Amino acid sequence: MDAAACIGCGACVAACPNASAMLFTGAKVSHLNSLPQGKAEKERRSVLMVQAMDEAGFGGCTNIGACESVCPKSIKLDVIAQLNRDYHTSSLKKILQF
User: Fold this and answer.
1) Cα–Cα distance between 85 and 79 in angstroms, integer?
2) Are 28 and 53 in contact (CB under 8 A)?
3) pLDDT of 1 strictly over 70
4) Distance between CA atoms of 89 and 6, rounded to whole angstroms?
5) Closest CA to 82 of 13, 23, 38, 18
6) Which residues are CB-contacts of 57 (< 8 A; sequence separation ≥ 6)?
7) Residues 16, 85: Cα–Cα separation, whole Å
8) Contact 32/6 with Cβ under 8 angstroms?
9) Is the pLDDT of residue 95 over 80?
10) Cβ atoms within 10 A of the Cβ of 74, count?
11) What are the boundaries of each domain within the chain?
12) pTM, 2 dp
């Protein structure tokens, strides 16, 4: 539940050389996906949040870690890894449904 501490301040995006919003997006998705009532929308949420981030023009994460070092709530890069796992698993399930 550490990801729930994210306040959406944007410091992570500002510090990232790629202007990536992966730490923020990962924190929100990881937090909501971990809640019992969030499980029903987990796959859909993971895909749609990454798509929205891409459409908004944010860069991709290259694991530099500048975001983690400036986060006032000490959100860890682990939320990005979890977001990637959830996104890829959900995308694969969507593909296999066809």
Assistant:
1) 10
2) no
3) no
4) 24
5) 23
6) none
7) 21
8) no
9) no
10) 9
11) 2-96
12) 0.89
Residues 79, 23 contacting (CB under 8 angstroms): yes
**Number of neighbouring beta carbons within 10 Å of residue 61:** 21
Nearest-angstrom CA–CA distance, 25 and 23: 6
Give residue 79's identity as a one-letter amino acid code: V
SS3 57: coil
Of residues 37, 42, 29, 17, the one with CA closest to residue 75: 29
Q: Which amino acid is at 78?
A: D
User: Encoding tokens for residue 88?
Assistant: 């890829």
State the Cα–Cα distance between residues 70 and 85, nearest whole angstrom.
24
Distance between CA atoms of residues 42 and 29, nearest Å = 8
Instruction: Find the mean pLDDT for residues 81-86.
Output: 95
